Automatic annotation (TrEMBL):
Pathway where this protein functions: Amino-acid degradation; L-valine degradation
Organism of derivation: Herbaspirillum aquaticum
Record flagged with keyword Signal: no
Short name of any one Pfam family annotated for the protein: NAD_binding_2
Gene (UniProt): mmsB
Top-level taxon of the source organism: Bacteria
Record-listed E.C. numbers: 1.1.1.31
Protein's UniProt name: 3-hydroxyisobutyrate dehydrogenase
Source taxonomy: Bacteria, Pseudomonadati, Pseudomonadota, Betaproteobacteria, Burkholderiales
GO molecular function, one term: NADP binding
Length: 297
């Protein structure tokens, strides 16, 4: 018999992820504070219940995709939360991007109640969530990692066991800090070339075959018109928002303070995205940082 899944947090990422589980034939009960999102899952063949914790009580697997640490902590640790409601033996998987410390705290509380819990943040954005091609970076026991495979494989393509609880989040924080820095560096380089009269397409093509090559240059170019499929060529709409990047860089800075680690470029990147957000770009794709570094032509 197919495992009963409860999916909580049907936002930009969670809805397509839950839809892929429905497509794979799992009975999925979806829950969100926004009714319209729940309706979309039900239209796609999922179900729901008025009381999300009554659904959790019947679930074999609980998957969450929430905005930030505080949402995850309150949903799992609250008096009538997931840990208080789930049935013995349920597998708990949190896919949100949160602080490694928060992930370890919730996993320890889950363990104290006899549950296996994984932190399983993702990379790949909303396109990857829709296509079922996300990368999962997973922290928790090897046994729980194996038990989660049937579900994670329906939502992602590359699924990595990073280590113990919290290590999935640590990898995610490191990856997104590097991504944020690379996007600013790539924007600077293209702006400098343009200031010298270079065609940004020619410049990007040559750098893509040279030692400056990186994902933001080759796949997600920040300069409008260089790459038709990139958010830069669509008015910086959709994609990965400045405010979400700002949140992730904030996690990196918090973590660096707690671990006494120097991240001079990571903290500078956080400050630049913060100024960009304060200037009103919070909802635009993070590649719009390109606009902060020069005048639109
Ligand atoms: P989102 O804001 O679109 O979705 C979050 C959803 O959680 C919302 O629909 C909200 O109503 C719901 N929610 C909040 N508290 C809830 C509660 N107590 N019960 C039920 N529902 C609740 O965010 P998103 O873009 O889907 O991102 C989710 C997570 O994934 C974040 O941690 C984000 O950093 C991470 N992430 C996002 C992307 C991306 O490209 N958007 C990529 C990788 C990782």
């Amino acid at each position: 018999m197919s495992a009963n899944i409860v999916f909580i947090g049907l936002g930009n990422m969670g809805l397509p992820m839950a839809q892929n589980l429905v497509k794979a034939g799992f009975p999925v009960s979806g829950h969100d504070l926004v009714k319209a999102s729940v309706d979309k899952l039900v239209e796609a063949g999922g179900k729901t219940e008025a009381d999300s914790m009554a659904a959790v009580a019947k679930a074999d697997v609980v998957i969450t995709m929430l905005p930030a640490s505080r949402h995850v902590e309150s949903l799992y640790l609250g008096e009538a939360g997931v840990l208080a409601s789930a049935k013995p033996g349920a597998l708990l998987i949190d896919c949100s991007t949160i602080a490694p410390e928060a992930a370890r705290k919730v996993a320890a509380a889950a363990k104290a109640r006899g549950f296996e819990m994984l932190d399983a943040p993702v990379s790949g954005g909303t396109n990857g969530a829709t296509a079922g091609t996300l990368t999962f970076m997973v922290g928790g026991s090897k046994e729980a990692f194996e038990a989660a495979q049937p579900y994670l494989q329906k939502m992602g393509r590359a699924i990595y066991h990073a280590g113990d609880s919290g290590s999935g989040q640590t990898v995610k924080v490191c990856n997104n800090m590097l991504l944020g820095i690379l996007m600013i560096g790539t924007s600077e380089a293209i702006r400098l070339g343009m200031a010298n009269g270079m065609d940004p397409k020619v410049l990007s093509e040559i750098m893509s075959k040279s030692s400056g090559r990186n994902w933001t240059l080759e796949v997600y170019n920040p300069c409008p018109g260089v790459m038709d499929t990139a958010p830069a060529s669509k008015g910086y709409a959709g994609g990965f928002g400045v405010d979400l990047m700002l949140k992730d860089l904030g996690l990196a800075v918090e973590n660096a303070l707690a671990t006494n680690c120097a991240i001079p470029l990571g903290s500078t990147a956080r400050n630049l995205y913060d100024i960009h957000s304060m200037n009103g770009a919070g909802k635009l794709d993070f590649s719009s940082i390109f606009n902060m570094l020069g005048k639109a032509k």
